[in-house]
Amino acid sequence: DAKTTQPTSMDCAEGRAANLPCNHSTISGNEYVYWYRQIHSQGPQYIIHGLKNNETNEMASLIITEDRKSSTLILPHATLRDTAVYYCIGREGDDKIIFGKGTRLHILP
Amino acid sequence: GAVVSQHPSWVICKSGTSVKIECRSLDFQATTMFWYRQFPKQSLMLMATSNEGSKATYEQGVEKDKFLINHASLTLSTLTVTSAHPEDSSFYICSARRQGGYTFGSGTRLTVV
Q1: What is the pLDDT along chain B (113 residues), one digit of tens a residue?
Q2: Which of A27, A44, B59, B102 is most buried, by CB atoms within 10 Å?
Q3: Contact B109 A49 (CB under 8 A)
């Protein structure tokens, strides 16, 4: 799995877009970029994943750079319930998921 | 869809006793499940991969005789912490592989006193 690098923590004002960056410069051509989040004392929750193209679902948007060395998860209108640790993971096929340290996102009222 | 139920959500046990944690896939079959452990303010650490009908694969440094994993059916994997000690107190989380991704249980907080 690709090693990913994320900022340790970030703040975002409630109602604003939260943009969470992730560097994955060693990602291979077949590895997808996955994003999960973990709200305190709960199991991780799947958010979104992508390979090359930008992706959007009901939770978030994923922007992947053309060289695939980095990506940004966008929560369009952050709420207090989005406070969590966000994990960016590179994964190929049915590989097991290895978690890094993630970004602790604080949504400020 | 794709729900994983983990039970119990929390448990307190005495040092030296064993504790069993269950992980069930409710609406899909999971030939592969994963067990993680998470200490406070740390990330999830993969302990082992549980394969239905065969032995689990443990990550380096995880004692297989202490953390017994059984995956006897396509919907159930169990983790038994044997002879638990206070240092085994942690948040244990299971995950099941499904078509299109992975689903995680809600976790079990184990406190050994």
Answers
A1: 679 999 999 999 999 999 999 999 999 999 999 999 999 999 999 999 999 988 999 999 999 999 999 998 999 999 999 999 999 999 999 999 887 788 999 999 999 99
A2: A44
A3: no
For the record, the structure tokens of A95 come out as 């590989």
> pLDDT tens-digit profile of A61-106?
999 999 999 999 999 999 999 999 999 998 876 778 889 999 999 9
Contact of B102 with chain A, judged by CB distance below 8 Å, is answered with: yes
Token couple for B57: 């694969």
User: For the purposes of burial, counting CB atoms within 10 Å of the CB of B81, is it exposed (0-12), middle (13-18) or buried (19 or more)?
Assistant: buried
How far away is chain B from the Cα of A94, in angstroms, using its nearest Cα?
8
* Closest listed residue to residue B45, CA positions, set B56, B31, B58: B58
Q: Angle at the Cα of A5 (from B91 to B37), degrees rounded to 5?
A: 15
CA-to-CA distance for B25 and A45, rounded, in angstroms?
15
Residue A87 CA to chain centroid, in angstroms?
Answer: 5
Amino acid present at A105: L
**Are A99 and B44 inside 8 Å of each other by CB?**
yes
Partnered with residue A10 across adjacent β-strands are A105
